[in-house]
Amino acid sequence: MKVLVAVKRAIDPNVKVRVKADGSDVELNGVKMALNPFCEIAVEEAIRLKEKGLATEVLVVSVGTSAAQEQLRTALALGADRAVLVETGALLEPLNVAKYLSKVIDNEKPQLILFGKQAIDQENNQVGQMVAQLIGSGQATYASAINYVDEQWVVEREVDGGSQTVALSAPAVVTCDLRLNEPRYASLPNIMKAKKKPLEVIAADTLGASVKAHARLLGVAPPPVRKAGIKVGSVSELVEKLRNVSGVI
């Protein structure tokens, strides 16, 4: 049984994001990049499924420039078996990414397709759902537990006010939430082994996906700077500040 995990290259979550001086985009030159944290959770879950004997191969796939090979090698060091990079320099719009991934899925025919619930850069939370629609499979979002029972993927997913359990026939698309697992660290021997694992690069325009630009980036601006908070000594002082300073009451 093959598990395919889609991963994305993103700014390291520990790095403070900076906007370019001309406001045209986010500054990426000299900025540390990393595997998107939610994608890392998805990779970890795929590896655990293999360790349980439920998966025979873990394939990681990314769409982007050649620089994304670094994050694919990270996933290989964590325990994935093989990697595919769909190489393109175009703006990574969710629908176009989903179309490229669906073509790879058609070729690879995995029984489970895992995504992080969203990427921390644009927070779109769209690609997994779009892929499920394009390949005509069942989907479960915000997964907090994944099991394989009676030839079905049984997924516990987080919803408002509790949890919901759904059963999906293979192939199934699942997006992974924070509470699904705690990703492992790559050991030095596995980092060295990852350098020899297969990583295939496919030009995006050879996949036959019908894509077009749907959006144009006009500019990026940092959020407004908030005023520092103050401490109050009593409830009456708090009420006075809310009434006369902030105007809340």
From TrEMBL:
A single Gene Ontology biological process assigned to it is: carboxylic acid catabolic process
Keyword list (alphabetical) reads: Electron transport, Transport
Task: Fetch the SMART domains from UniProt.
Answer: ETF
**Could you tell me which Pfam families the record lists for this protein?**
ETF
Q: Which PROSITE patterns match?
A: ETF_BETA
Protein family membership? Belongs to the ETF beta-subunit/FixA family.
Q: How does it assemble?
A: Heterodimer of an alpha and a beta subunit.
**What is the protein name stated in its UniProt record?**
Electron transfer flavoprotein subunit beta
Q: Which organism is it from?
A: Pseudomonas frederiksbergensis
